[in-house]
Amino acid sequence: ITAFMMLLSISCVQDDDYSVPQSIGLEENQKLVQLLSEIENGSADLMSITELKNLFVNGEANQIESNLVVKGYISSSDYTGNFYKEFYMQDETENPTAGIKVSINQVDSYNQFNVGREVYIKLQGLYVGETNSGDGVIAIGGGADAAGDEISEISENRATECILRSSNSFSLVPLALNLSDINDSHIGVYVSALSAQFSPGLDGLTYVDPEEDYDTQRDLESCVDSGTLKLETSAFSNFNDSMLPTDGSGTITGIITRDYFGDNRVMMLNTKDDVNFDSSRCDPLFADDFSSNNLN
Predict the structure, then answer these.
(1) Which of 24, 51, 169, 271 to pair with 200, CA 20 to 30 A apart?
(2) pLDDT (tens digit, 9 = 90+) per residue, 197-222?
(3) Are 248 and 197 in contact (CB under 8 A)?
(4) Which run of H or of E encompasses 194?
(5) 216-222, long-range: CB within 8 Å, 24+ apart, which pairs?
(6) Is pLDDT above 80 for 26?
């Protein structure tokens, strides 16, 4: 009996293997095969993310009654804790034109919904709207609040029925843009901001202000034009106390969205490894940096 209990204990120990599973369970695969068959025979209609976002009605949580399906590729990851009970997906793996948020009552969703994973969402009975009314971020949710102006999360159990993963998983090619070119059409999209750096005055600071309970925004500026953008980082991310790389400039890659109240357009990182400031800073030399002896 002692030997049996020891064997049972060993067999139950977690091996800390957090690798993303590449195979899809048989039951889930059968659901996807059935859904693809419905799309092929016309009993379900496949729509684009852009078409889905066009169903959004400002200030309303709009329930979808028709048998509609949307396909996308996961662009965000909650692996580092910077995203919480949500993921973003976009319409293409390269040169995307639209992205959307999916609000789901599930943590550590990166185990299922890894970046680049192709997913199909059965929309009938779900809602399209905003998780925070007026924030300007269109999302898919499982219900509506009492006022009918905000969506609620898709429950984890329901997600297994309506969010179906394909076995296809791709490497996303970030959309390369200057800061001044980034706008609200890029919300939910995986973007590389080119020739960027953290604004002067942030030396010695961390991604998250230690006095903040939730999120901190740090200013980014462009080396090629007047473009600016705020980088938002969650206090619950595993790199919240890492130092900002303020001594260089280069490329920073993340998801474009808006802050909680919708006041600012922001970028959120999947990981701090997506900050590649490997060039020198581009701070301009102002006139007061020169003495009269340097003037001709």
Answers:
(1) 271
(2) 999 999 999 999 999 999 999 999 99
(3) yes
(4) strand 190-198
(5) 217/259, 217/264, 217/266, 218/244, 220/179, 220/193, 220/196, 220/252, 220/267, 221/179, 221/196, 221/197, 222/178, 222/179, 222/180, 222/193, 222/195, 222/196
(6) no
* pLDDT tens, residue by residue, 135-188: 999 999 999 999 999 999 999 999 999 999 999 999 999 999 999 999 999 999
Both tokens of 226, joined, read 């007047």
Cβ neighbours around 286 below 10 Å, total: 7
Token pair in block for residue 142: 């499982």
pTM (2 d.p.):
0.87
Q: Which residues contact 169 (CB under 8 A, 6 or more apart)?
A: 20, 22, 114, 116, 117, 118
DSSP, residue by residue, 93-155:
SSS---EEEEEBS-SSGGGTS-TTEEEEEE-TT-EEE-SSTTS---EEESEE-TTSSSEEPBP
Cβ contacts of 139-142, under 8 Å, gap ≥ 24: 139/86, 139/100, 139/101, 139/102, 139/103, 140/52, 140/70, 140/100, 140/101, 140/102, 140/103, 141/61, 141/103, 142/103, 142/105
Side chain identity, residue 102: V
Contact 195, 231 (CB under 8 A): no
The radius of gyration computed from the CA coordinates of the chain, to the nearest angstrom, equals: 22
d(CA 278, CA 251): 8
Beta-strand pair 86-90/127-129: unpaired
